[in-house]
């Protein structure tokens, strides 16, 4: 192992290098992306069943998705890696067809339900070595940064303006104006909005750190480059208001946030969908996956500066929504009734993807029947539980939501379960919807809103339901390694 951090008698001579290489043992390796064999990720038994026996999946969409994934991943080397993962012996010169047949046979007979002890032992050994390596790195990095801190403070102290300070050291800039010594938000330091004229946020040096601070918001305004201005502050409405004012002074039009431009995109998308569809696919929650622009009169009236780009992104087969209603942003969990939503939230299956069966490592002894699981998780669209689902509500999804107040950072976690609502889609294609939700920040009554689908991918799940709980608000500190 190379010397840690180029240590000398006087400390660490240079910044420690991040350990990019995985720790290895023959064809086995462990790194930041987990356990691999010959650089291929190890598939769980559930995943193997899905890929090798797609015809047994319960829905056409699930079968189609599994076939596409199988075509992408099941090369010869991947098959060999899975055989090695489950300790299945084979001839070194086995051809691809025989290797795949061997894997299929072993999966069918349950020989891949558990990872053999010898492979688990290798995995745990590699994991321990990797974690030790990462621990050494963070210890060295903290020591190096503490060693460099006096020089950083001296350079920072020579700056003559907030813009120069942000350019010099974004971390010390945020600590000076927005954080206390423990890294917690401190609104008393800078209650006003701070403008940074001429600041160019290279590699998101400032915005990336700001994302980790609850209720602190940034916006860009101006023509870009030296004529750009970054606005940063605790009040999202005021931050957006300053950005809008500066844009107006420079005659800048940000068409991507313009309602009329987005409605044109929606109409074009709808026309293309209607002209290209030969048959109408029956309504299914998966039809809702994508991006919707939203309009909410209550937000428009009460928070006009927060009404610029309201969005809903639906993912995971239409089960989860990431929403931005200006004053509140957060997550929605969808189902065909409020009772089923409550069940998903209560048992923790809200984050389950019906098309992926939520793989779990069989090394933990998980041997639940895959197909029973799929029957249970596949959105439960029937009415076996006695929920009301009449024909007038055949295009309706109910939801619970959690989020946070974008002005104060306060978590809207709602332990009593009143953060509820529904979305009623116009037709099977789920291109338009109207809906209603309970949101105390906009009054005691249910708030109506509407949405219009536009082209584009919904993107990844970048929020966590559990992180929006009352406990999370007590733990929301900026990690030390950020600085």
SSE order and pairing:
Elements: E1 7-8, E2 11-12, E3 23-25, E4 28-31, E5 34-37, E6 40-41, H1 45-52, H2 60-73, H3 76-85, H4 96-108, H5 117-157, H6 162-168, H7 170-177, E7 194-197, H8 207-210, E8 217-222, E9 228-233, H9 236-249, H10 259-276, E10 290-295, H11 297-302, E11 311-315, E12 320-324, E13 328-335, H12 338-347, H13 370-377, E14 396-405, E15 411-412, E16 420-425, E17 432-437, E18 447-454, H14 470-475
Antiparallel strand pairs: 1-2, 3-4, 4-5, 5-6, 7-9, 8-9, 10-11, 10-18, 11-12, 12-13, 13-14, 14-15, 14-16, 16-17, 17-18
Beta content: 15-25%
Largest beta sheet, briefly? 8 strands, antiparallel, barrel
Tally of separate helices? 14
Give the % helix. 25-40%
Shape: globular
The largest beta-sheet arranges its strands as: 10-11-12-13-14-16-17-18
Distance between the termini: 27 Å
Report the average pLDDT across residues. Answer: 78
Tally the beta strands.
18
Helix-and-strand structural type = alpha+beta
Unreliable runs: 354-391, 470-483
Radius of gyration: 26 Å
Describe the structure concisely for a colleague:
The chain is of the alpha+beta class.
Task: Explain what the structure shows.
Mean pLDDT is 78; it is low at 354-391 and 470-483. The chain is α+β, with helices and mostly antiparallel strands and 483 residues long. The two termini are 27 Å apart. Helix 3 packs across helix 4 (96-108) and helix 6 (162-168) packs across helix 7. It has helices at 45-52, 60-73, 76-85, 96-108, 117-157, 162-168, 170-177, 207-210, 236-249, 259-276, 297-302, 338-347, 370-377, 470-475; strands at 7-8, 11-12, 23-25, 28-31, 34-37, 40-41, 194-197, 217-222, 228-233, 290-295, 311-315, 320-324, 328-335, 396-405, 411-412, 420-425, 432-437, 447-454. It is 35% helix and 18% strand. The protein has an eight-stranded antiparallel β-barrel with strand order 10-11-12-13-14-16-17-18. Strands 3-4-5-6 form a four-stranded antiparallel β-sheet. It has a three-stranded antiparallel β-sheet with strand order 7-9-8, sandwiched between helices.
């Amino acid at each position: 192992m190379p010397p840690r951090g180029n240590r000398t008698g006087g400390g660490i001579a240079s910044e420690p290098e991040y350990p990019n290489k995985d720790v290895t043992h023959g064809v086995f390796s462990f790194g930041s992306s987990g356990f691999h064999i010959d650089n291929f990720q190890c598939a769980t038994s559930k995943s193997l069943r899905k890929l090798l026996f797609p015809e047994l999946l319960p829905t056409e969409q699930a079968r189609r998705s599994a076939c596409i994934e199988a075509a992408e991943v099941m090369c010869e080397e991947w098959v060999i890696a899975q055989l090695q993962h489950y300790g299945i012996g084979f001839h070194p010169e086995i051809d691809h067809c025989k290797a795949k047949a061997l894997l299929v046979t072993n999966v069918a007979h349950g020989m891949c339900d558990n990872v053999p002890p010898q492979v688990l032992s290798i995995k745990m050994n590699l994991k321990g070595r990797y974690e030790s390596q990462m621990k050494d790195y963070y210890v060295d990095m903290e020591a190096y940064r503490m060693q460099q801190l006096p020089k950083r403070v001296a350079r920072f102290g020579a700056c003559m303006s907030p813009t120069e300070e942000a350019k010099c050291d974004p971390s010390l800039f945020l600590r000076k104006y927005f954080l206390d010594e423990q890294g917690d938000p401190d609104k008393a330091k800078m209650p006003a909005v701070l403008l940074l004229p001429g600041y160019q946020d290279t590699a998101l040096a400032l915005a990336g750190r700001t994302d980790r601070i609850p209720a602190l918001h940034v916006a860009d305004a101006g023509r870009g480059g030296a004529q750009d201005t970054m606005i940063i502050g605790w009040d999202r409405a005021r931050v957006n208001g300053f950005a809008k004012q500066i844009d107006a002074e420079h005659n800048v039009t940000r068409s991507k946030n313009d309602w009329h431009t987005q409605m044109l995109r929606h109409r074009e998308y709808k026309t293309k969908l209607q002209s290209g569809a030969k048959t109408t696919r029956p309504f299914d929650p998966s039809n809702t996956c994508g991006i919707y622009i939203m309009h909410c009169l209550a937000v428009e009236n009460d928070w006009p500066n927060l009404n610029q780009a309201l969005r809903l992104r639906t993912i995971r087969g239409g089960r989860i929504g990431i929403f931005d209603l200006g004053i509140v942003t957060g997550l929605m969990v969808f189902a065909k009734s409020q009772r089923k939503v409550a069940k998903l939230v209560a048992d923790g299956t809200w984050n389950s993807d019906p098309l992926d069966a939520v793989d779990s490592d069989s090394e933990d002894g998980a041997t639940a029947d895959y197909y029973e699981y799929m029957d249970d998780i596949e959105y439960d669209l029937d009415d076996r539980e006695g929920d009301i689902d009449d024909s007038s509500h055949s295009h309706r999804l109910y939801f619970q939501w959690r989020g946070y107040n974008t002005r104060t950072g306060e978590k809207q976690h709602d332990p009593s379960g009143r953060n509820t609502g529904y979305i009623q889609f116009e037709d099977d294609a789920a291109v338009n919807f109207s809906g209603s939700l309970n949101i105390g920040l906009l009054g005691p009554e249910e708030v109506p809103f509407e949405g219009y689908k536009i082209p584009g991918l919904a993107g990844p799940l970048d929020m966590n339901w559990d992180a929006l709980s009352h406990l999370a608000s007590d733990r929301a500190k900026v990690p030390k390694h950020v600085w």
